[in-house]
């Protein structure tokens, strides 16, 4: 086949360092989501939806075939962190957590994941970020070590 094609969808989740609620301001949060979307699109990983709450982000995107997950996330965090720090002095201490979680999503589940991400505010009235991530780990059959997940 002379052409390389790919349709791999990924649900990415990452938090602010120590889950500090830097993103309380809804306008800043939405602007950050838009900015993350632009970065991701530039990296040839077009986002389908980006959401989250004051201490973490969820992104569903179509993953590029020319970049690794680690490179993608590194650039998302690096560029968005610089942007947020330049935006206002109150974000001078802003940092993303060191790690991230990436989950594969089948074409048939895209709408379900989009709905999940769009309802983060409501979802987190009932469940903490840690419990949410533990549930995602279990759902996707991942083993994790609590000592290294929550930086």
Overall morphology: globular
Q: What share of the residues lie within helices? A: 40-55%
Distance between the termini: 44 Å
CATH topology: Alpha-Beta Plaits
In total, how many domains does the architecture comprise? 1
Q: What class do helices, strands and sheet pairing give? A: alpha+beta
Q: What is the topology, as strand order, of the major beta sheet?
A: 2-3-1-4
- Uncertain segments of ≥5 residues (pLDDT<50)? none
Task: Characterize the structure shown.
The chain has a single domain, classed as Transposase IS200-like (Alpha-Beta Plaits, 2-Layer Sandwich). 42% of the residues lie in helices and 19% in strands. The protein is built from 6 helices and 4 strands. A 4-stranded antiparallel sheet has the order 2-3-1-4, with helices on both faces. Helix 1 packs across helix 2 (69-87).
């Amino acid at each position: 086949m002379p052409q390389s094609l790919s349709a791999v969808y990924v649900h990415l989740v990452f938090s602010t360092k120590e889950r500090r609620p830097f993103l309380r301001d809804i306008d800043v949060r939405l602007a950050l989501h838009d900015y993350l979307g632009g970065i991701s699109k530039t990296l040839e990983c077009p986002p389908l939806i980006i959401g989250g709450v004051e201490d973490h982000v969820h992104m569903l995107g179509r993953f590029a075939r020319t970049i690794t997950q680690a490179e993608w996330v590194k650039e998302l965090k690096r560029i968005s962190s610089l942007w947020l720090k330049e935006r206002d002095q109150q974000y001078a201490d802003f940092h993303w957590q060191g790690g991230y979680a990436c989950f594969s999503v089948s074409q048939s589940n895209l709408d379900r994941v989009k709905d999940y991400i769009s309802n983060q505010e409501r979802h987190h009235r009932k469940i903490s970020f840690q419990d949410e991530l533990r549930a995602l780990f279990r759902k996707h059959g991942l083993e994790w070590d609590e000592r290294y997940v929550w930086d």
